[in-house]
Amino acid sequence: EFHVGDAYKLPLSDESIDLSICQTLLMHLDEPAKGIKEMQRVTKKGGRVIAIEPNYASLSFFDTSYEAMGLSLEEKTKLWRWDRILALGKRKLGRGDNDIGLRMPYLFHESGLRVLDVRCLDRVFYLVPPYEGHELELKHLLLPPDEVVKHLDLRSEFLAGGGTEKEWEEYLRVMMTAYEIQRKQVEAKTFVSAIFQAAVVTVAEKV
Hints:
alpha+beta
């Protein structure tokens, strides 16, 4: 049986289910603690509350395409720093939290839940080569940076996260350079990537 509802106001009565579980939901909420409270409300005492949420920080640190592009340590360090600035800005603007998986044990504890287990699931988004079967991912990868920036409104997130206008201009230049390198490598079928992102599974009990 399926219901469509508000994550902040589930169409279920108090303490009516044995298990509540969400996956990549809390990362998109501007008030994740409120969403957790609602999961807690509908779960019976002694029942389980489980969240599977990402840690995108791992994605920026383990992006093997950086190696394939031949970036220097200084260039990679800048990209990592800018990625963290964007993540912080997104969170400050209430647009979600890409790294919320790491905070889930704390958020569950603050909600009054008893944390029972925390596990990390490793995940490779896509492994290239082979190229077959990854056409959609490669198409997304080759979106021009200016289209991505405009669609996601990254500039406001960058500045909200503590970045400067000068750094933003440098970020755009580096991203355009990386885009051109990747585009040529994909067309020549020399592009290699195993983009990795960890997901954190947090299991708690309602007491």
